[in-house]
Design brief:
With about 300 residues, the protein is of the alpha/beta class. The chain has helices at about 30-35, 45-60, 70-75, 105-115, 125-135, 185-200, 225-235, 260-270, 290-305; strands at about 80-85, 120, 140-145, 150, 175, 205-210, 215, 240-245, 250-255, 280-285. Bound molecules: ligand L263DTV3. Its EC number is 3.1.3.12.
């Protein structure tokens, strides 16, 4: 969780560096290589370089938990809207993606948060799957990295301490917003081919995320990484309208449209009738690269408010 700041040289208490699993190395060509880079395997020089760039980055992006009082002050008089990622944020990272369960304690906390503030979960999973994991009805869900959103179909405002109901359209049904709908037939096709292609690679798993597809390699032996990546890339060669992005030991295939978690945040703010309000404090908690799209979205929103 980060908190954007602009106070120049002032020294900020720094969190312990724990991003051992997925440090970014812009020079690594392979997706799998990049996402499996491990700091302890790096040369001393590389490690120092990565740590020092992290050090300087953290000065402008300090841990929100270390600045909690400041965060609370910033919230005075503001309407808070909460956005949450699922995997690695509400649930622990586990080997089997189908077993990434959320604890009852976490569910109770999210339930309480959603009682007081409009709350949305924005996940890379399919919307139904993440909802099945979370099992709460008093919040909004977006799946497929924001490409499948169940938002209010009309502005809904929070009244202090009251539950917020999911808005319904005039037929009484919920209405999803799905900007990548036209890609669905191609996604089904990619899913079918990929399942077939990676079958021979021990530990590889293909997950149907609705408007995107995940190819997991957490349980794949290192010697098979290259073969797996080749297979995924060869499937994509026939589908130039899709792109490959990376997460935590997962390759994600998604439609190449300009729509990500950041756009989903903006969409929620719009449908909640809050996007042009100056008195809002959106809070986003996430752990993965795709969550950075949302963080960038917030920077654009706050720049818009100061114009
Ligand atoms: O946006 P998120 O909700 O964080 O979803 C991103 C991906 O999360 C899941 O994969 C990750 O968690 C799994 C369970 O802990 C783990 O096995 C995997 O290695 C992680 O990458 C999900 O399964 C993916 O489909 C999502 O894209």
């Amino acid at each position: 969780m980060g908190f954007q700041t602009s106070h120049g040289s002032k020294r900020i208490p720094q969190p312990i560096f724990k991003a051992k699993e997925d440090p970014i190395d812009a020079n690594a060509n392979s997706f799998i290589q990049r996402s499996t880079l491990n700091l302890i395997d790096q040369t001393q020089t590389n490690t120092k370089f990565i740590l020092s760039s992290y050090d300087s980055w953290v000065v402008t992006h300090p841990s929100a938990l270390n600045l909690f009082e400041r965060l609370m002050k910033a919230a005075i008089g503001k309407r808070i809207i909460v956005f949450l990622d699922y995997d690695g944020t509400l649930s622990p990272i586990v080997n089997d993606p189908d077993c990434a369960f959320m604890s009852d304690e976490m569910r109770a906390v999210v339930n309480e948060v959603a009682t007081y503030f409009p709350t949305a979960i924005i996940s890379g999973r399919s919307r139904n799957k993440v909802k099945d994991f979370v099992k709460l009805n008093n919040l909004y869900y977006a799946g497929s990295h924001g490409m499948d959103i169940m938002a209010p179909s009309m502005p809904v405002r929070s009244s202090k301490g009251k539950h917020i109901d999911i808005a319904l359209n005039t037929n009484g049904t919920e209405v999803p917003f799905q900007p990548a709908k036209k890609f669905l037939p191609a996604i089904r096709e990619i899913l079918r081919i990929l399942k077939n292609e990676v079958m021979g690679i021990k530990g590889a798993m293909v997950e149907d995320n609705g408007f995107c597809v995940s190819v997991h390699f957490r349980q794949v032996q290192e010697k098979d990484y290259g073969a797996l990546e080749e297979k995924v890339k060869s499937v994509l060669e026939n589908h130039p309208e899709f792109c490959l992005t990376e997460g935590k030991k997962v390759m994600e295939i998604r439609p190449s449209i300009k729509w990500n978690k950041g756009n989903a945040v903006q969409y929620f703010l719009d449908t909640l009738g809050l996007s042009s309000c100056n008195d809002i404090l959106p809070v986003y908690i996430g752990d993965d690269r795709t969550d950075e799209d949302a963080f960038k979205g917030f920077c654009e929103i706050s720049a818009g408010h100061t114009e």
